[in-house]
Amino acid sequence: MTDQERVRIVDSADVSADAVIGAGSSVWHLAQVRENARLGKNCIIGRGAYIGSGVRMGDNCKVQNYALVYEPAQLGDGVFIGPAVVLTNDTYPRAVTPDGAIKSAADWKPVGVTIEEGASVGARATCVAPVTIGAWATVAAGAVVVKDVPAFGLVAGVPARRIGWVGRSGVPLQRSQDGAWVCPSTNARYVETDGILIEEVA
């Protein structure tokens, strides 16, 4: 069986012939994947989701129902995008130019959201480009992200603010007596220095 044969695209999905879909990936009902988008292996694109032209996704990503991933977003391996999430791409959105003419592609430059390995964005959150969501970070449902999120950061609210740290499992970390942060799920330990969290190497 070839890699292309292992891709599942349902009949109602709209996938450009110029898109590249990795082996083992699935594109579900009414989803749209635009030209020159590149999806890695074992990705799942949920019902009604939109993947913009030129978007890059790593392996093992999940984009849930009705999420909108506008170009030129970049998603690392293992990224989770919850239902109805929006990744924007226009810093100063307008339908028309100052003189009232319809705005064309030449009138603005798309800017993207970057989401690094293992990070998750909760349902109905909005990430306002250009921002970077660090590796293994979690954006809470309904948050509006307007500035970068550090690796392992847990952010919530409008605008989103860091309210804690999470480990690779996504479970909030707990402070230990020696000052380190510990994952109650995996027992992995992390050290915080000047607002940056680093996982200890065993």
Walk me through this protein's architecture:
β24 (181-182) and β25 (189-193) form a beta hairpin. The chain is globular and about 60 Å long. The protein has strands spanning 8-9, 14-15, 20-21, 26-27, 32-33, 38-39, 44-45, 50-51, 56-57, 62-63, 68-69, 74-75, 80-81, 86-87, 114-115, 120-121, 126-127, 132-133, 138-139, 144-145, 153-156, 161-165, 174-175, 181-182, 189-193, 196-199. The chain contains no helices and 26 strands. The protein is an all-beta fold. The strands form five sheets. A nine-stranded mixed β-sheet has the order 1-4-7-10-13-16-19-21-22, with no helix packed on it. A seven-stranded parallel β-sheet has the order 2-5-8-11-14-17-20, with no helix packed on it. A four-stranded parallel β-sheet has the order 9-12-15-18, with no helix packed on it. The termini are far apart.
Main sheet, how many strands, which sense, barrel? 9 strands, mixed
Mean pLDDT value: 95
Please mark out the parts with pLDDT under 50 across 5 or more consecutive residues, or reply none.
Answer: none
* Widest beta sheet: strand line-up: 1-4-7-10-13-16-19-21-22
Beta-strand content estimate: 25-35%
| Structural class computed from helices and strand pairing | mainly beta
In terms of quaternary structure, what is this?
Answer: single chain
Inertia-based shape: globular
- Number of E-state strands: 26
